[in-house]
Amino acid sequence: MSTTRRLTTVDSHTAGHPTRVITGGVPPLEGDTVSEKYAWFQDNLDELRPLLLHEPRGHSAMVGAVMTGSQVADFGAFFLGSYNYLPMCGHATIGLAATLDYLGLVSPDENGRAAFSLEVPAGIVDLALTYDGNRLISASFANVPAFVAAQNVRIPALEMPLTCDIAYGGNWYALVEADAAGVSLEPSGVTAALALGSRIKAEINALIDLGRIPNAGEHVHSVLFYRTSREAGLLVSRQLVVLAANKFDRSPCGTGTSARLAQLIGLGEISSGERIRSRNILDVDFSALARPLEQAGPGAAPMYRPYIEGLAHITGQHTFIRTENDPLPIGFLCR
Ligand code: PYC
Question: What pLDDT digit, counting tens, does each position of 214-268 carry?
């Protein structure tokens, strides 16, 4: 049997969402910074993304991470989705931390802690790991700054009157109240949420193209449906993030939680530094808080540093191959 590609990975899940870290088989990437390598990979090696993330080796929700090395941080990496590239990804940052621990590239000090910095295309994130003996029990990261770009944006062309807030937390989000949208935040509500979420994403991105949301820097990547409650005084944000028409974040979403923290502080529902729990539809939580920063975002929006804490679990270690006569050389995805 003759193979045309051989790639090794370590796979994990963070609150249910997969991260496939590529550990071997990627040729050297050109560029000095992670952003330059990220751009070079997209121009020259994009076929590795569908090969590893699409069926039959992956699926529509699979997220990958490529380790790059870094001149300014302890590690460098960028993230790939099945449809797109991600300047930052929270659940995959936690997955990467678990992978580095699994590979013995980070280990606890005598106080049961480890720390490292990670350069990603969106900036530098600092990670803090906590251990019980040699067992990793939590990974938290200080994310890139989060801010709200627009509030109460009326979403056009829906059957019901609905508004959203537009916020950034490493990726761009339209934040929509689930009950107002009639979205159930249960596994049984996913199909309806995907249909409505992808419509909202298209409508909001059309408004952005028309310049109607001036402070939105780019298209929104995702629509985050949320419901707020309190448990023993702690704010709980249950959330479901629609990434594409057939793809939702199984985790509470690290960058989405970051955007939500900026929204919650802006609305006065929590104060800076107040800890919340963000919860996915599978009832797994991230713990999160955000602290104010000196600098301001677009339109003088207050900016915050989000801190997101969770845990990933290793699910496998793989050698993927592609044989010479494979009729689906880069896999496939049905939308
Ligand atoms: O956790 O930030 C995140 C994320 C983005 C897309 C999938 N997960």
Answer: 899 899 999 999 999 999 999 999 999 999 999 999 999 999 999 999 999 999 9
Q: Where in the sequence of the chain do the CATH 3.10.310.10 domains occur?
A: 3-141+314-323, 146-292
Indicate whether residue 254 lines ligand 1 (CB < 6 A).
yes
Ligand 1 atom index nearest CA of 169: 2
127 contacts 139 by C-beta, under 8 angstroms = yes
Query: Which ranges of the chain does DSSP label H, i.e. alpha helix?
Result: 34-44, 48-53, 90-102, 178-181, 190-209, 254-266
User: Which residues are designated catalytic?
Assistant: 89, 253
pLDDT above 90 (res 297): no
| Index of the ligand 1 atom closest to the CA of residue 258 | 2
Given the candidates 3.20.20.150, 3.40.50.360, 3.10.310.10, 3.40.390.10, the CATH classification of the domain at 3-141+314-323 is 3.10.310.10
Rounded Cα distance between 209 and 136, Å, is 44
Name residues whose C-beta falls within 8 Å of residue 102's C-beta, 6 or more positions apart in sequence.
10, 12, 314
120 lines ligand 1 (CB under 6 A): no
Ligand 1, atom 6, lies closest to the CA of 89
**Structure tokens given for 100:** 């580095």
Give mean pLDDT, residues 115-132: 96
Q: What pLDDT is recorded for position 305?
A: 97
146-292 CATH pick, 3.10.310.10, 3.40.109.10, 3.40.30.10, 1.10.8.420: 3.10.310.10
Tell me how far the alpha carbon of residue 254 lies from the centroid of ligand 1, in angstroms: 6
C-alpha 253 – ligand 1 centre gap (Å)? 5
Provide, rounded to the nearest whole percent, the portion of the chain with pLDDT above 90.
91
pTM: 0.96
